[in-house]
Design a protein that fits this description.
The protein is an alpha+beta fold.
Length: about 425
């Protein structure tokens, strides 16, 4: 087994606030500070689509103490980097810097998330920015086809809705819409604070307590959870698009998985399309030359999982590519992965696990994500042991249970000739 880096870890809870996860790598000067909010597009009602993402943009535009310019000057003017993203079931706000940025990073993130003011002039400008962002994703074949694939995979369910929302709704939202959604869903008690670097636990704790102490108490409200999504929807759809390539997504929705089965699905993804040694890469690109790039993705939610393959090709090579993908998925279901090939997959995933643990940007997100999904951050040693224990027989049993070839859905964007 590869040696695990020496990481010290603690979990605390602030009075009136959420859990605080702190991983410390002695001697490390790089720093990551993040806040994970378990609210995303799936928590929106149909008339609220895009509000979570809109709020992600607007918290950067001013708080009770700082203007938008002051927020950026305190962080990026000091040499750190601040950013955020919205997903289907969470938002994540983070600052990457060095140890001297720690106190300011905690102060700024707490202020942005829990004391935003949503100024009207900034709202109008940011509305236009989001509309441009929507158009940008429409111009990206991979993003566009993936969004449509999720829409078909979870029909009528918030997991299938576009994270960015629809342009006609974005144009109508006012300040009160953002304030109401923020008040209903985003609270200190549900946020997960995640910090990684070389700073001592005591210093970080003092800074967090000071930031939380300035926060006015709020009434605790649970975020409204969406109903469970449909699982196992199968479809085959074809559409014509103004893209130069023909794009394809093949995948399936699966039940919610525990830790062990998530490791197995991650191994399947790595084996099929994780890198240039993957079987899809070898078969589609190296042997047949019918794609430039092919990849696999896995997404885990509290009540569902999704595995899918994406590639771009030409109409001339489409039939060959589809037959090859179907054949490899059938083979995965009918026979175990060779022991030597699975050993490669384990080594690749072990390397990624060690690299991720030592990379503070990756670590702050993963420990918060694990805390939300499992109730605790999973130690690196536990993840490494689970990978080492993965055998061809266990992976085969998982494939036979969940990855029947007839369960895959497919969406094809034919290039317009």
């Amino acid at each position: 087994m590869a040696a695990a880096p020496r990481i010290l870890f603690t979990e605390e809870r602030l009075p009136g606030g959420g859990p605080v996860l702190i991983s410390r790598i002695p001697g490390r000067r790089s720093l990551g500070v993040g806040v994970y909010v378990p609210v995303g597009s799936r928590h929106e009602r149909p008339q609220q689509q895009g509000l979570a993402h809109f709020i992600e943009h607007m918290v950067f535009k001013g708080t009770r103490r700082y203007s938008a310019r002051q927020l950026l000057r305190k962080i990026e003017g000091a040499g750190a980097e601040i950013n955020a993203f919205t997903a289907r079931d969470h938002m994540f706000f983070y600052i990457h810097g060095i140890d001297q940025h720690g106190k300011t990073a905690i102060d700024v993130l707490h202020e942005m998330l829990f004391q935003p003011v949503f100024p009207e002039p900034e709202l109008e400008k940011e509305r236009n920015v989001i509309l441009e962002e929507i158009e940008m994703y429409k111009d990206s074949p991979e993003d566009d086809i993936t969004d449509r694939f999720f829409e078909l995979l979870f029909p009528g369910h918030p997991l299938g809705a576009d994270i960015l929302g629809k342009p006609e709704q974005i144009r109508q939202y006012g300040r009160s819409d953002l304030m109401q959604f923020h008040a209903a869903h985003i609270h200190p008690f549900q946020a997960i604070y995640s910090i990684s670097g070389g700073l001592s636990f005591s210093r970080v704790s003092r800074w967090l307590e000071k930031a939380a102490g300035a926060e006015a108490p709020t009434t605790k409200k649970e975020t409204l959870a969406a109903p469970p999504p449909p699982i196992g929807v199968v479809f085959e759809q074809e559409r014509r698009k103004d893209f130069h390539q023909t794009h394809v997504v093949v995948g399936l929705s699966l039940p919610a998985f525990g830790f062990e089965d998530r490791i197995r699905l991650a191994a399947v993804s790595q084996y099929l399309g994780g890198n240039m040694r993957s079987v899809l890469w070898e078969e589609l690109r190296e042997k047949r030359g019918c794609v430039y790039h092919v990849s696999t993705q896995v997404q885990f939610f509290q009540d569902a999982s999704v595995f899918y393959i994406h590639f771009g090709t030409t109409e001339k090579h489409l039939s060959t590519a589809m037959k090859t993908v179907r054949r490899l998925l059938k083979k995965l279901f009918e026979r175990p992965v060779a022991r030597g090939r699975l050993a490669e997959v384990r080594r690749q995933l072990l390397t990624a696990a060690v690299w991720g643990a030592e990379n503070v940007a990756h670590q702050i997100f993963m420990q918060a994500w694990q805390r939300h999904h499992y109730g605790h951050a999973v130690p690196l040693e536990v993840r490494m042991a689970a990978l080492e224990a993965l055998t061809p027989a266990r992976l085969f049993a998982f494939s036979q249970t969940h990855l029947h070839p007839d369960r895959y859905a497919a969406l094809i964007y034919h290039a317009r000739s």
